[in-house]
Automatic annotation (TrEMBL):
Catalytic activity: Thiol-dependent hydrolysis of ester, thioester, amide, peptide and isopeptide bonds formed by the C-terminal Gly of ubiquitin (a 76-residue protein attached to proteins as an intracellular targeting signal)
Alphabetical keyword list: Autophagy, Cytoplasm, Hydrolase, Isopeptide bond, Metal-binding, Phosphoprotein, Protease, Repeat, Thiol protease, Ubl conjugation, Ubl conjugation pathway, Zinc, Zinc-finger
One cellular-component annotation, GO: cytoplasm
UBA domain segment(s): 605-646, 680-720
Subcellular location: Cytoplasm
The name this protein goes by in its record: Ubiquitin carboxyl-terminal hydrolase
SMART domains, A to Z: UBA (SM00165), ZnF_UBP (SM00290)
PROSITE patterns per UniProt: UBA (PS50030), USP_1 (PS00972), USP_2 (PS00973), USP_3 (PS50235), ZF_UBP (PS50271)
Organism: Accipiter nisus (Eurasian sparrowhawk)
Length: 819
C-alpha cells in the first residue's frame, strides 16, 4: 500500500532530481485540509513514537541550551521542562521508498503540494476544545509556576478538617499557593459551587495560583490560574505544597525512625488504595507501561490496563497488529481496531517502559546531547476516538469505570476482528425466573450480560457496634467543629453480598398473563452459563435522600478463589407451570389532551425505582428517565437495553420531551418514538417484545411485517409459531462507519449468543478501586497479578504492590480455573 505522508525528521535525504515528476503518481491523492479536518502532527496514528522517543521514526534530539542540565539531572528534574528546546524540521516523505524532501521547498514542489504542506503545518490541534464539556487539549504549565513567590508566614495546612476562612464552607476549597489561604471557589473548571471567596482574594491580592484541596495525589493536583483564567499545570507543585507542610509524595514514616508498631493505622481510602507510606519498587518492561492521566481519565487507564492483561485481547489486537494496520482505512485515527492495536502494543511492547540509567544520562550530558527516558504513553488519540459522540466520556469530567467498561465492550462487539471476538470471554447468559405470586406460575427467560453486579449487604456488617459509636463521635465532632474521629469502615462479608444477589426481588408493575391483570411478582437470577472471565462489580454507588450521588465506604472480604457453581440455572422444574404466552393489552387513552400514551390501562407514569436502579449504574439521570419512559415502565432490565442501544446518540443525556398525541405515527408509537431509518423498527419496541421472551430477530421481523404496530406485531408472532425456533444472521452491523477492517472480519454466526461455558470456579487476578465520594469525582487505580505478584497501575506509576487493598475494590476480575 503506497501513501504520501508528512513526517517530522528522518534519516536519508533524497537525491536531487525532478521532484515534480516524482510526485506525479501521488497528485490525485493530495488534498488541502479544510476547516474541521483532523490533523495530527504530534502523535502517530499507529504508535506512541514521537520526536522525543529515541529510535523513533524521525525527530531531532534536544540540544542542551544552558548549564542547568547537569544540575537538573542530579535533582531528578523533568527533562521535558523549559530548560530544553527541540529544533524542529519538517520533511515531505514519499513511501515506500522513503524519499525525503526538506520543507519549505517552494521553488521545486508543485503549488498544490506546497499549499497542502503549509496547511498541515499550520493546522490546529484536533483535541482543541469545542464546547464547555467536550474533549480539550492537555493542560499547559502556568507562566507563574517557575517564579511563584510564597510568603514565609508560618502557615501549615492540616491533612483534613479544612473550611473556607471567610464563610466556613467545607466543600470546593482552594489553597492559595502564595499565602496559604483556604477559600471556597465558584467559577472553576469543575463546575463546583461556592461563594467565590478564592476569586475575591485574587482580586484583592493578585496571588495567581491555587490548588484544589482533596485532589492532591503523588501524581499531582488540580491547579487553577486566576490570572490565566484556566486550569494549568504546576511543574513545581511538590515544592509549593511542601512550603505549607503538605507532603504530596507521602514519604514512608519508617524512614523517620518510627517502628512499624508506632505507625498509626492508615484508614483513608486514598492512602490505602494507592499504598501511600510504603516504598514501592517501580516496574519496567513489557506489560508494565503506565498511562498518562489526561485530566480525569484515570477510569479509562484502569480499565484498559485490565483489558490488555487478558490473553484473548492481546492476541486479537497485538497479535493481529500487522493485519489490522494493513487493512486500516485512509483515516486510521478513526478506526477502532487500529487504535486498540496501537494501545495494546504501547502497553505490552515494553518500548515505552524502560528503567532510567543514570550513568548513561551523565555520559550523554558530557557529550552535550540528551535522550530523555520515555516512560508511559499518552492515550489522547484513543480517548478522543473512543469517546466521540458520547455525552459523558467526551467530556473532561470523571466517569464510572463500570459504565466505560460496558461502553468498550459495546464497541468491541460492533467492530469484531479475526475469527473470534475477544469480548466473548466476558459474555454469559442469565436465566431469569419470574413468578406470579398469586397463581404461582412461572416464566423463564434468558439474557446476555457481561458483569455480575453484587449489592452491598449493609445489614450484614460484622462491626455494627463500632459503626454506631463512630457515627456518634462524628456527629459530636461536627457539632463542636473539631476534627472528625478516625474512620471506621463497615466490614461486609462477601458471602452476604452473594446471598443478596441470589435472593428473589420484587417485580414492579408485574402483569400476570395467568390473571390477565397486574399482580405481585418476584424474580430470581441464575447463571445459564459461566464466562471464561468473570467481572464482579460491588454496587457501592447510590443516591441519598437529597438525590446527591454518594458512595458506600465499605470493606468487603473478596476471596482469592471463588466458587459460584451453586448459582447454575436449572430451568423449568418438575411441578412448575409456565405462565401463558399472552401479551398485556395496549390501550390508547381517549383524551388527546393527555399528551401521553401507555400500553397499560393506567396513564403513563415514570417508574422512579427503575430510574434509580439505572442511575446507580452511573448513567445520566435524564437518560435513565427517557429509557424507562420509552420502554413503557417494563423494568430496569428492559430500560438498560434501551440505554445500550441509544447511548451513542447526541441527545442521550438531554431532558425527556414527551411527544404530543397528535405526533403518533401508529398505534402505540407515541411511547416508542419515531420509526427508525431504513424501515428499522424502533429499538424501544424491539426491547419490549424481547422482554416478553421472544428472540430479537423475530421481534424485528414481526414489527417490519406490521409497519411497526406493536399490538399487531404480537398477534403476528402468535400466528407464526414456526418462526420462533428459527434464527438468522445479525440484521445489521451497527454503525460500521469509517471501518475498513471489514475485509478481515469473520462472518457473524447464526447459532445464537456466543458463550464460553464451563466451570463456575474462579481465581482473582485483578481489581479496579475507586477513591472519592461518587462517580463524578475521585480517582481510579488498577491492581493486577502478574508473574505471581501484585502490581499497582496508578496512571503513569507502575510499581510492585506491597499491600494490595483487595477489600476496597470496585470492579474485580476473575479467571476461570481449568477443571
Amino acid at each position: 500500500m503506497q501513501r504520501a505522508a508528512f513526517f517530522s525528521g528522518g534519516d536519508a535525504q533524497m537525491a536531487a532530481g525532478d521532484l515534480g515528476e516524482l510526485l506525479v503518481p501521488y497528485m490525485p491523492t493530495i488534498r488541502v485540509p479544510k476547516s474541521g479536518d483532523r490533523v495530527y502532527k504530534t502523535e502517530c496514528a499507529f504508535s506512541y513514537d514521537s520526536p522525543k522517543v529515541p529510535g523513533a521514526s524521525g525527530g531531532a534530539l534536544p540540544k542542551r541550551r544552558n548549564a542547568k542540565l547537569f544540575l537538573d539531572l542530579e535533582t531528578n528534574s523533568d527533562p521535558n521542562n523549559d530548560d530544553f528546546e527541540y529544533e524542529d524540521e519538517a520533511k515531505l516523505v514519499i513511501f515506500p521508498d522513503h524519499y525525503e524532501i526538506l520543507l519549505p521547498n517552494i521553488e521545486e514542489l508543485p503549488a498544490l503540494v506546497t499549499i497542502a504542506c503549509d496547511a498541515l503545518l499550520s493546522a490546529k490541534s484536533p483535541y482543541r476544545k469545542q464546547d464547555p464539556d467536550s474533549w480539550e487539549e492537555e493542560l499547559q504549565a502556568s507562566k507563574h509556576a517557575k517564579t511563584l513567590v510564597q510568603l514565609d508566614n508560618g502557615v501549615r495546612i492540616p491533612p483534613s478538617g479544612w473550611k473556607c476562612s471567610k464563610c466556613d464552607l467545607r466543600e470546593n476549597l482552594w489553597l492559595n499557593l502564595t499565602d496559604g489561604s483556604v477559600l471556597c471557589g465558584k467559577w472553576f473548571f469543575d463546575g463546583s459551587g461556592g461563594n467565590g471567596h478564592a476569586m475575591e482574594h485574587y482580586k484583592e491580592t493578585g496571588y495567581p495560583l491555587a490548588v484544589k484541596l482533596g485532589t492532591i495525589t503523588p501524581d499531582g493536583a488540580d491547579v487553577y490560574s486566576f490570572d490565566e483564567e484556566e486550569p494549568v499545570l504546576d511543574p513545581h507543585i511538590a515544592k509549593h505544597l511542601a512550603h505549607f507542610g503538605i507532603d504530596m509524595l507521602q514519604m514512608q514514616v519508617t524512614e523517620n525512625g518510627l517502628r512499624d508498631n508506632d505507625i498509626k493505622p492508615r484508614v483513608s481510602e486514598w492512602e490505602v488504595i494507592q499504598e501511600a507510606g510504603v516504598k514501592l519498587k517501580p516496574m519496567y518492561g513489557p506489560g508494565y507501561t503506565g498511562m498518562k492521566n489526561l485530566g480525569n481519565s484515570c477510569y479509562l487507564n484502569a480499565v484498559m490496563q485490565a483489558i490488555f492483561s487478558i490473553p484473548e485481547f492481546q492476541r486479537a489486537y497485538v497479535g493481529n497488529l500487522p493485519r489490522i494496520f494493513d487493512y486500516s482505512p485512509l483515516d486510521p485515527t478513526q478506526d477502532f481496531n487500529t487504535q486498540m492495536a496501537k494501545l495494546g502494543h504501547g502497553l505490552l511492547s515494553g518500548q515505552y517502559s524502560k528503567p532510567p540509567m543514570k550513568s548513561e544520562l551523565i555520559e550523554q550530558v558530557m557529550k552535550e546531547e540528551h535522550k530523555p527516558q520515555h516512560n508511559g504513553i499518552s492515550p489522547r488519540m484513543f480517548k478522543a476516538f473512543i469517546s466521540k459522540g458520547h455525552p459523558e466520556f467526551s467530556s473532561n469530567r470523571q466517569q464510572d469505570a463500570q459504565e466505560f467498561f460496558l461502553h468498550l465492550i459495546n464497541l468491541v462487539e460492533r467492530n469484531p476482528v479475526g475469527s473470534e471476538n475477544p469480548s466473548d470471554v466476558f459474555r454469559f447468559l442469565v436465566e431469569e425466573r419470574t413468578q406470579c405470586c398469586q397463581s404461582r406460575k412461572v416464566r423463564y427467560t434468558e439474557r446476555v450480560d457481561y458483569i455480575m453486579q453484587l449489592p452491598v449487604a449493609m445489614e450484614a456488617a460484622t462491626n455494627k457496634d463500632e459503626l454506631i459509636a463512630y457515627e456518634l463521635k462524628r456527629r459530636e465532632a461536627e457539632a463542636a467543629r473539631r476534627p472528625p474521629p478516625e474512620l471506621v469502615r463497615a466490614k461486609i462479608p462477601f458471602s452476604a453480598c452473594l446471598q443478596a444477589f441470589s435472593e428473589p426481588n420484587n417485580v414492579e408493575d408485574f402483569w400476570s398473563s395467568a390473571l390477565q391483570a397486574k399482580s405481585a411478582g418476584v424474580k430470581t437470577s441464575r447463571f445459564a452459563s459461566f464466562p471464561e472471565y468473570l467481572v464482579v462489580q460491588i454496587k457501592k454507588f447510590t443516591f441519598g435522600l437529597d438525590w446527591i450521588p454518594k458512595k458506600l465506604d465499605v470493606s468487603v472480604d473478596m476471596p482469592d478463589f471463588l466458587d459460584i457453581s451453586h448459582l447454575r440455572a436449572r430451568g423449568l422444574q418438575p411441578g412448575e407451570e409456565e405462565l401463558p404466552d399472552i401479551a398485556p393489552p395496549i390501550i390508547i387513552p381517549d383524551d388527546a389532551k393527555d399528551r401521553m400514551t401507555n400500553h397499560f390501562v393506567e396513564s403513563l407514569d415514570i417508574d422512579e425505582s427503575s430510574v434509580m436502579q439505572l442511575a446507580e449504574m452511573g448513567f445520566p439521570l435524564e437518560a435513565c428517565r427517557k429509557a424507562v419512559y420509552y420502554t413503557g415502565n417494563l423494568g430496569a432490565e428492559v430500560a438498560f437495553n434501551w440505554i445500550i442501544a441509544h447511548m451513542e446518540e447526541p441527545d442521550f443525556a438531554e431532558p425527556l420531551v414527551i411527544p404530543a398525541f397528535g405526533e403518533v405515527a401508529s398505534s402505540g408509537a407515541a411511547v416508542f418514538g419515531a420509526v427508525g431509518l431504513d424501515n428499522q423498527p424502533p429499538e424501544e419496541m424491539v426491547a419490549i417484545i424481547i422482554s416478553m421472551g421472544f428472540q430479537r430477530n423475530l421481534a424485528i421481523q414481526a414489527l417490519k411485517a406490521t409497519n411497526n404496530n406493536l399490538e399487531r406485531a404480537l398477534e403476528w408472532i402468535f400466528s407464526h409459531p414456526e418462526l420462533e425456533e428459527e434464527t438468522e444472521p445479525a440484521l445489521d452491523m451497527m454503525d460500521m462507519e469509517n471501518n475498513a477492517n471489514a475485509n478481515i472480519l469473520a462472518e457473524t454466526g447464526s447459532e445464537g449468543p456466543r458463550i464460553k461455558d464451563g466451570s463456575g470456579r474462579y481465581e482473582l487476578f485483578g481489581f479496579i478501586s475507586h477513591m472519592g465520594t461518587s462517580t463524578m469525582s475521585g480517582h481510579y487505580v488498577c491492581h493486577l497479578k502478574k508473574e505471581g505478584r501484585w502490581v499497582i497501575y496508578n496512571d503513569l506509576r507502575v510499581c510492585a504492590s506491597e499491600r494490595p487493598p483487595k477489600d476496597l475494590g470496585y470492579i474485580y476480575f476473575y479467571h476461570r480455573i481449568p477443571s
